[in-house]
Amino acid sequence: xxxxxxxxxxxxxMKSLGVVGAGLGTMSAAAPxxxxxxxxxxxxxxxxxxPWWVKERDFKNPTVPMDWPQITRHAGTFKTLPRPTVADxxxxxVVGGTS
Length: 99
Hints:
mainly alpha
């Protein structure tokens, strides 16, 4: 029956428990402490951890030259999709029509 019990003594168990507790205490003391979300957002820890080959660029600083006067804004509508008609609404089963 003695083969089924652990060979770890109480003293060794308590020593390992103390070592683990000391390690956790050291890790918690070394970790940054944030008091509110302003400190989290202003911190640089863990933000944009890109691989080494990814170059950080400023906002509105593209990698290719652009002719800004040639770039036009879209009106916000898609010209490829027709506007739905009343028949489309009734065929889809919309109750109450289009209003």
